[in-house]
Amino acid sequence: MAMDILLTLLTVVFALMVVFSKKTVVAAFSLLMTLLSLAMIYFQLGTVFLSAVQVLINAGAVAILFVFVMMLINLEEFSNNRERNKVKLVISTFTMLVVLGVLALVINNNIETLSIVNLSDSSMTALFDKLFNSYFLPFEMATVLLLASIVACIVITGHEKHGKEELKEQDKMGVE
Amino acid sequence: MSIYYYLSAFLFCLGLLGTIFKKDLISMLLCVELMMGGVSLLFILFSKSTGFLDAQLMVVFTLIVSACEVAIGLSLIIALYRKKQTIYTDDIKIITE
């Protein structure tokens, strides 16, 4: 129970930071931490596979994509990050240690879930059995959806041939 | 475990709040992701409390759809920035113009 409350508190704090932080970069990294704490909750609940997927896809790909887009768009937000602030260093180290401590507690509590005997038991096998039998068509449709979204991204963000001069002007503005 | 139900509701409501009151498009998309996180958590809780395994698969599909949504949303934001040089919703009046 104490573990549940601790994880909930961690998630709530980072979720509040997503909404109420002034800087978008801070919000993006708070979202990353929120998704990681959600992954810890999934782990605590015993859905190990979904926890791993959450870390890989949502935290690893989606949240980092946000940061990359911010680097493309808001150049001025990154300009004053060169100077090293000691307070920031202390705060970020403290945050990292808290998250690490919670993660260690979760793993310590669920050490028997991690053993191979439990991982290969019925729940995982049943999950994949369902995914590749009764949900095979939706699964394949999801791959088509992903392909369509890749094509859509390329089409939407692709350079137009007559827009090259405009882009050069934009680059100059960015340098200035 | 029941505290997680409140957490999922809280995450959804907080994401909704952020989506409504944020001014720039990237922050709005971040808040939509927060809502997605709340919904996924609720799916897993449902699966755990009823033993209904299909709900866990729904989470996988939700994840795929949210990844597509974020990719397309961010590329739309980049396209908009190239055209209008802004990502703030107050500056965009394409429909009302």
Walk me through what this model shows.
- The complex is a heterodimer of chains A (176) and B (97).
- With 176 residues, chain A is mostly helical.
- Chain A contains nine helices and no strands.
- Chain A has helices spanning 2-20, 24-45, 48-73, 75-79, 86-109, 116-119, 122-132, 136-157, 164-175.
- Chain B has 97 residues and is an all-alpha fold.
- Chain B has a single domain, classed as Helix Hairpins (Orthogonal Bundle), CATH 1.10.287.3510.
- Chain B has helices at residues 2-21, 25-50, 54-84.
- The longest helix of chain B has 31 residues, at 54-84.
- Chain B is elongated.
- The chains are: A mainly alpha (176), B mainly alpha (97).
- At the A-B interface, helix 1, helix 2, helix 3, helix 7 and helix 8 of A face helix 1, helix 2 and helix 3 of B.
Work out the radius of gyration of chain A.
21 Å
Q: Please indicate the count of domains of chain B.
A: 1
CA distance, first residue to last residue of chain A: 55 Å
**Helical residue percent band of chain A:** over 70%
Q: Count up the helices of chain B.
A: 3
Helical region count of chain A? 9
pLDDT averaged residue by residue of chain B: 87
N- to C-terminal separation of chain B?
Answer: 51 Å
Which CATH class of the largest domain in chain A is shown? Mainly Alpha
Low-confidence stretches of chain A: none
Model regions low in confidence, pLDDT < 50 over at least 5 residues of chain B: none
Structural category of chain A is mainly alpha
**Mind summarizing the main beta sheet of chain B?**
none
* CATH class term of chain B: Mainly Alpha
Biggest sheet of chain A: strands, sense, closure? none
Report the β-strand fraction of chain A as a percent range.
under 5%
Q: Which percent band covers the strand fraction of chain B? A: under 5%
Number of strands of chain B: 0
CATH architecture call of chain B: Orthogonal Bundle
Q: Write the CATH homologous superfamily of the largest domain in chain A.
A: NADH-ubiquinone/plastoquinone oxidoreductase chain 6, subunit NuoJ
